[in-house]
Backbone:
C-alpha cells in the first residue's frame, strides 16, 4: 500500500513539473534568452575594455618612445587623445609626460587637463589624491594662497597618505613668502600627524628647529 502511494505521489509530482514547464514554456525560453544575452554582453564588454586598454597602452608607449623635438606637435596631439580617453593609468601618465617635457606652455590648458583626470576619470582614491598633489605642485610658484589652498584642501581635510605632503607644500609656500607664523603652523600640523610620512616629518622638524625656532 505504501509503495503504491509513493508511486502515485511521484507520478503526481512529475506531472506537476511537466505541466509547469508546458504552461510556462514561453516565459522560461524568454528568461534563458535574456540570461544568455546578458552573459554574452558582459563577456563582450569585458573583452572590449581589455582590448581598449591594450590599445591605449600601445599608443602611449609608442608615442613616448617616438617623441623628439621634431615630433613634438604630433606627440601632444596623441597624448591629449589619451587624456580624453579618461583611462585611469595612461591618462595621468600622458599628462605627466607633457609636463615633464614642457610640451604645453599654457598653464590654463594644463590645469584643464588636470581637471579632466581629477573630476572625470575613474581613479583609485589615493591615485586621485596624488594627481591633486601634483596639480598643487604645478601651481605652487604662481598661485595665490587661496588658490593653492583650494587645490590642496581635499588632502588637508582627509586622512590620505598625501596629507603630510600637502601640509609640507603649504608650509614651504608660506615660508617662501616670509609668512613664518603661518609656515610654522603647517609644519607643526605635520609633527602632530600620526600618519605623517617619516621623511616629510623629519624635514618639518629640521625646518622648525633651524629656521622657525624663535
Residues:
Amino acid at each position: 500500500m505504501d509503495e503504491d502511494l509513493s508511486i502515485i505521489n511521484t507520478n503526481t509530482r512529475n506531472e506537476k513539473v511537466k505541466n509547469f514547464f508546458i504552461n510556462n514554456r514561453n516565459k522560461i525560453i524568454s528568461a534563458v534568452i535574456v540570461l544568455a544575452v546578458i552573459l554574452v554582453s558582459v563577456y563582450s564588454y569585458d573583452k572590449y575594455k581589455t582590448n581598449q586598454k591594450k590599445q591605449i597602452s600601445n599608443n602611449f608607449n609608442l608615442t613616448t618612445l617616438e617623441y623628439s623635438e621634431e615630433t613634438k606637435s604630433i606627440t601632444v596631439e596623441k597624448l591629449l587623445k589619451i587624456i580624453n580617453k579618461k583611462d585611469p593609468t595612461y591618462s595621468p601618465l600622458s599628462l605627466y609626460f607633457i609636463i615633464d617635457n614642457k610640451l604645453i606652455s599654457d598653464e590654463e590648458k594644463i590645469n584643464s587637463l588636470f581637471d579632466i583626470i581629477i573630476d572625470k576619470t575613474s581613479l583609485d582614491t589615493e591615485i586621485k589624491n596624488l594627481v591633486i598633489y601634483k596639480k598643487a605642485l604645478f601651481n605652487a610658484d604662481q598661485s595665490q594662497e587661496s588658490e593653492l589652498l583650494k587645490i590642496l584642501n581635499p588632502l588637508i581635510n582627509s586622512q590620505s597618505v598625501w596629507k603630510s605632503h600637502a601640509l609640507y607644500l603649504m608650509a614651504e609656500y608660506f615660508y617662501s613668502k616670509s609668512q613664518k607664523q603661518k609656515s610654522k603652523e603647517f609644519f607643526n600640523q605635520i609633527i602632530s600627524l600620526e600618519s605623517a610620512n617619516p621623511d616629510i616629518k623629519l624635514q618639518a622638524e629640521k625646518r622648525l628647529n633651524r629656521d622657525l625656532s624663535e
